[in-house]
Structures are given as C-alpha cells and as structure tokens.
Design a protein that fits this description.
single chain, alpha+beta, Double Stranded RNA Binding Domain, elongated
C-alpha cells in the first residue's frame, strides 16, 4: 500500500527527485497540526496540516492545501524539494519574487512621483480633449 493517495507514477517521480537532490526520509522531521480558516468543525478538529523540516538545512514547509492529511504529506514533500532545489541553484524562489513584486506595487509613491504622474495625466487629458468633435458653438 502506497503511503500517499496519488498515482504511483507521481510517487515514483517524487522519490527519484528526492534521491537526486540528496533528500532522505531519515533527514525529515514531520508533525501535524490543526488547520485553520474556513471549513467549520471538521477543519478545526482534524490535524490535517503537515509541517515538514529538513534537519540538516533547517528548511521548513507547512502544507494545508487539501483536506486530506495523506495528500498534504505528499504536497509538503514536493514543496520541500522545490525549496531545496532553489537553494541549491542559489536563486530566489518564485514565491519570493512574487512577494517582492506585490510589495513594490503596494509601496506608496513619493510626492514627486505623484506630482509627475498627475501632470502627465493632465497633459494626456488635454491631448484627448483636442480630439473631440467640434461642438455647435465652434
């Protein structure tokens, strides 16, 4: 019986990927906590959230994407492989890049930037006003 409720091919791919990265089950510490958020009694009573830590590197992953604990175990291992591979390549993970992009978008503009933007909008509005059809008094 497979420990994860996924296609045997997917499980085999995960095991191969873990082997290729040098991750072993012995190096992983796994524990379960109760999920939060919407879902009512069932979510609040079951410990379906999976926390996974790679002891040698200290990388930690928490997965509560699905209601099934077994499926969350599989997904947590996949996320850990992604994180570990990104660290090996020495590049910023996609998630980190997305967070930075959102942070830049939310950042408040300086007064000078705001003034320049408003001025550009006024110029653009004036240009568009010149394109209008002439009225009856023109």
């Amino acid at each position: 019986m497979s420990p994860f409720p996924v296609n045997p091919d997917k499980e085999r791919q995960l095991q191969q990927r873990m082997r290729a990265l040098g991750l072993t089950e012995a190096d992983l510490q796994e524990w379960f906590i109760r999920g939060g958020g919407p879902g009512g009694q069932k979510t609040n009573k079951t410990s379906s959230t999976v926390c996974l830590r790679h002891r040698p590197t200290g990388l930690e992953v928490r997965c509560a994407r699905e209601r099934s604990q077994a499926l969350n175990r599989f997904l947590a291992r996949r996320e850990l492989c992604d994180k570990f591979a990104a660290r090996l390549r020495g590049e910023e993970s996609k998630r980190q890049q997305e967070r930075e992009k959102i942070r830049r978008q939310k950042r408040r503009r300086s007064r000078r930037q705001t003034a320049r933007m408003v001025d550009d909008k006024k110029k653009h509005g004036a240009k568009k006003a010149l394109r209008q059809r002439p009225g009856p008094e023109d």
